[in-house]
């Protein structure tokens, strides 16, 4: 992807770990029958209309100072964190906004829910983009809309993936917030103070997609759906783990160990997902994090290969080998026998 960062010649490289923009089968979405869960959707719509965070994302005087005092390496890592977060939130805004437009006539309840979720995502993306502006650069969101490639997911895959991304987003935000509440000396920038209320938006969005899944029992109650749930759990967890491993310096700058942070977020998200998904991952099995650690280390080697002065053909051969090894480790994760969700829910009550 061509860089969308203004006032800099930095380029953002598109990889499997880059936040993606999605599209789906809008006709299939328009024909969804949600009558099995009508009451929950009406309750969720009431929550969205209440707009609890309407006055939350307002910058206070703490933002009004120069941030050039932040150590340069930390600043670069922090800007990257803001950029990735802003791109992910803006991706959600675009998808939800388009869904609200396409469903307006066929399913007004879903359409309004998507519209109000797009409001939340736009608010998050705008707040993050203003934060990026504090470092004298800006993310051109209009350019992103036109330039990014859109990945097609069928509606059921959108439900699985977005449910998990919203729930994992909740646990990521609240874990950082609680850590910095305990150790405020590591709060390098005031945006972290907003994470407690912010993550409640993520949680409500996750609840909405949980309601969608419950309204379509065929996405949850058969062997095929168990395999897809397992696939998306592993995909979301592995993507986060590999991303955070290569950005461990950022987490260190706010007083967190990236590995311990991810382990906690994975544990909590796995528990949350078990309330909807028919299975949960067996993350207590020693091999689980062993395979993630091996994959993360291999992924970091890919970055080192890109920086090396080796010939292109040598780089390509080494990369193919490393990608194959990462693929083998992720496949091994998939074949770790999952746990029935009913068992998980009994143990966490």
Report what the structure shows.
- By secondary structure, the protein is mainly alpha-helical.
- It has two domains: about 200 residues, no CATH class; about 130 residues, no CATH class.
- The chain contains 13 helices and six strands.
- The chain has a two-stranded antiparallel sheet with strand order 1-3.
- α2 runs antiparallel to α7 and α6 crosses α10.
- The longest helix has about 30 residues.
- The radius of gyration is 20 Å and the shape is globular.
- The N and C termini lie far apart (about 45 Å).
- It is found in: Plastid, Chloroplast.
- It catalyses: Mg-protoporphyrin IX 13-monomethyl ester + 3 NADPH + 3 O2 + 2 H(+) = 3,8-divinyl protochlorophyllide a + 3 NADP(+) + 5 H2O.
Strand arrangement, largest sheet?
Answer: 1-3
Mean pLDDT: 90
Strand content: under 5%
Q: Give the total of domains.
A: 2
Name the shape in a single word. globular
Rg measurement, Å:
20 Å
Number of helices: 13
How many runs of DSSP E, i.e. beta strands?
A: 6
Which parts are unreliable, with pLDDT below 50 for 5 consecutive residues or more?
1-17
Structural class: mainly alpha
What is the terminal separation in angstroms?
46 Å
Secondary structure topology:
Blueprint: E1 5-6, E2 21-23, H1 26-30, H2 38-50, H3 72-103, H4 108-133, E3 138-139, H5 141-147, E4 150-152, H6 155-182, H7 195-215, H8 223-246, H9 248-253, H10 258-273, E5 279-280, H11 286-307, H12 312-334, E6 339-340, H13 341-348
Helix pairs in contact: 2-4, 2-7, 3-4, 4-7, 6-7, 6-8, 6-10, 8-10, 8-11, 11-12
């Amino acid at each position: 992807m061509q860089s969308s960062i203004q006032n800099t010649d930095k380029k953002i490289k598109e990889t499997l770990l880059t936040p993606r923009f999605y599209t789906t089968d809008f006709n299939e979405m328009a024909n969804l029958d949600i009558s099995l869960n009508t009451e929950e959707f009406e309750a969720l719509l009431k929550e969205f209309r209440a707009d609890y965070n309407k006055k939350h994302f307002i910058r206070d005087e703490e933002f009004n100072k120069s941030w050039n005092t932040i150590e340069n390496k930390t600043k670069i890592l922090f800007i990257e964190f803001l950029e990735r977060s802003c791109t992910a939130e803006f991706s959600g805004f675009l998808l939800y906004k388009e869904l609200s437009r396409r469903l307006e006539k066929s399913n007004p309840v879903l359409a309004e829910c998507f519209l109000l979720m797009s409001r939340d995502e736009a608010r998050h993306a705008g707040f993050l983009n203003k934060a990026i502006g504090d470092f004298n650069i800006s993310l051109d969101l209009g350019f992103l809309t036109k330039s990014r490639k859109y990945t097609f997911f069928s509606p059921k895959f959108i439900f699985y993936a977005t449910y998990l991304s919203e729930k994992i987003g909740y646990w990521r935000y609240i874990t950082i917030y609680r850590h910095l509440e305990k150790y405020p000396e590591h709060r390098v920038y005031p945006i972290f103070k907003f994470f407690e209320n912010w993550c409640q938006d993520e949680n409500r969005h996750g609840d909405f997609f949980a309601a969608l899944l419950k309204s379509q029992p065929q996405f949850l109650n058969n062997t095929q759906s168990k395999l897809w749930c397992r696939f998306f759990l592993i995909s979301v967890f592995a993507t986060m783990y590999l991303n955070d491993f290569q950005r461990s310096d950022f987490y260190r700058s706010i007083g967190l160990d990236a590995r311990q942070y991810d382990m906690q977020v994975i544990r909590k998200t796995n528990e949350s997902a078990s309330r909807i998904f028919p299975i949960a991952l067996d993350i207590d099995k020693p091999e689980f994090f062993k395979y993630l650690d091996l994959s993360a280390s291999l992924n970091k080697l890919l970055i080192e290969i890109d920086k090396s002065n080796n010939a292109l053909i040598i780089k390509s051969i080494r990369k193919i080998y490393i990608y194959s090894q990462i693929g083998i480790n992720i496949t091994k994760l998939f074949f770790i026998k999952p746990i029935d969700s009913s068992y998980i829910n009994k143990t966490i009550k």
